[in-house]
Amino acid sequence: MDDPKGLELVVNACRLTDVIALDTEFERSTTYFARPALLQLRIDDQTWLIDPVAVSPLEHLGTALNEADSIKIMHSASEDLAVLELATGQPIHGLFDTQLAAAFAGHGFGLGYHALANRLLGVTVNKDQTRSNWLQRPLTPAQLAYAATDVEFLPMMHKQLRDEVHELGRSEWLAEETQALITRANSTDIERDFLRLASRADSNEARGRLRELCQQRESLARKLDRPRKHVADDPILVDMARECPQSRSELESLPSWRTHRGRVGTRALLDAVQLSMAAAPCALPAECQDLTAYKPILNKLKQVVANVARSLTLEPAMLAPRRVLEKVVVHTVVLQRPGLPAELDGWRDAVLRGPLLDCLQDA
């Protein structure tokens, strides 16, 4: 659908229904922000494909999607939420994520749309256009058929999963996890990049500069609408923090420069270094420390999580993946703080607090 009259029909259909299935196709390999290429909606047994390249603005669609208390069914919605907000100018409310619901219903953690449709409905969904170029025009019949299929089965999966989750008494768990997904989708975690790289810095001063350089990279990527790696990849960022190059020749003499794939000028990188020089020193964060000595405790915690997950017919990764268990060790053993880290708040706290703290006490 690529004309204003067709868009008006979709907007009216959104206002008259209680359930809307949604999906998007987008491209972001060369940009920071995703470029919406197609919006798919399934409303009352009818599928609509909207071309955001040809039809704009889409603010009325965003308003229609959110002004009623309709349920928005999506699968693995984190990226699609951001794309829809970019396309329509409004966030999506009333989300039901079939991937999350499937995990709480005991079907498995992180199942793709095609696998879940086969498991629940016994249908085989064609995957041959997954890596397609969705910004090309015109879209091929194969692309359009694939895009339509991505919303065709969502309403049926929603009904089955909603009932299964309710029967297990996990509707509140699903609501809580859905809100967490929405929060993550709408946030930018610059600190995550720093924590991933912090152990590579060789001093507190270098780590302080590295934290600032991570922030500068994020700002430049957003401003230029380029992927972070097109601004500065990780190795050059670490070398810049360590060596503080003051000239183009010093920058280009860094060990990582030969393999650097950044596409911004050296002046922008040198300016970022200058800004980082004023950063306060930063000690190695506790969560970045080597936990090799705590491997026996981690293994015991992992077994506890596996036992609890088995009793709930959930995947252990849904409860607490290894990175979260490492935070548990840092929080309770290294830093000797009470309780459990924030990653285990909410429904996870209700099922894991006792078993994990008992295990730590016995360790």
| N-to-C order of helices and strands | HEEEHEHEHHHHHHHHHHHHHHH
CATH class of the largest domain: Alpha Beta
Strand content: 5-15%
The CATH topology annotation of the largest domain reads as Nucleotidyltransferase, domain 5
Mean pLDDT: 93
* Principal-axes shape call: flat
Unreliable segments of 5+ consecutive residues? none
Number of strands: 5
Largest sheet: 5 strands, mixed
For the biggest β-sheet, the strand order reads: 3-2-1-4-5
What's the tally of helices?
18
Helix- and strand-based class? alpha/beta
Calculate the terminal CA-CA distance, rounded to whole Å.
Answer: 62 Å
CATH architectural category of the largest domain: 2-Layer Sandwich
* Percent range of helical residues: 40-55%
Q: What value does the Rg take, in angstroms?
A: 24 Å
Number of domain units: 3
CATH homology superfamily of the largest domain? Ribonuclease H-like superfamily/Ribonuclease H
Detailed description of the structure:
Helix 3 packs across helix 8 (171-185) and helix 10 crosses helix 12. A 5-stranded mixed sheet has the order 3-2-1-4-5, with helices on both faces. 34% of the residues are buried. It starts with a helix and ends with a helix. The model has no long low-confidence stretch (mean pLDDT 93). The protein has 3 domains: 4-185, Nucleotidyltransferase, domain 5 (2-Layer Sandwich), CATH 3.30.420; 190-276, DNA polymerase, domain 1 (Orthogonal Bundle); 290-362, HRDC domain (DNA polymerase, domain 1, Orthogonal Bundle), CATH 1.10.150. It has 18 helices and 5 strands. With 363 residues, it is α/β, with parallel strands linked by helices.
